[in-house]
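B., you asked whether I could sanity-check this one before it goes into the benchmark set. Here's the sequence:
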Amino acid sequence: MRAKRVEQAERWPHGNEWVRRDGAQLRTVLSDCPVERPRDWTSWVNQPHTAAEQASLREHIRRGRPYGDEVWVRQTASKLNLQ
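And here's what the prediction gave me:
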């Protein structure tokens, strides 16, 4: 979406939103979500990231660090021995 290739996440045929909705033949490669997604999930994933979110995502990717709220990140990093 940021690259302006699609206007909605579910229209990108290489993303999991499209696969979950329209890509029946590819669904087998996706795991079920570990938790139920909120009702407004599609709306949420279609919102652009703020500059702060984008910077945080890039930092997490650069460091190979799990991304999420701070408590979840600490728990996950501990479970995966990534401290």
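One thing to flag: Helices lie at 16-22, 41-45, 51-63, 70-79. Otherwise nothing jumped out at me.
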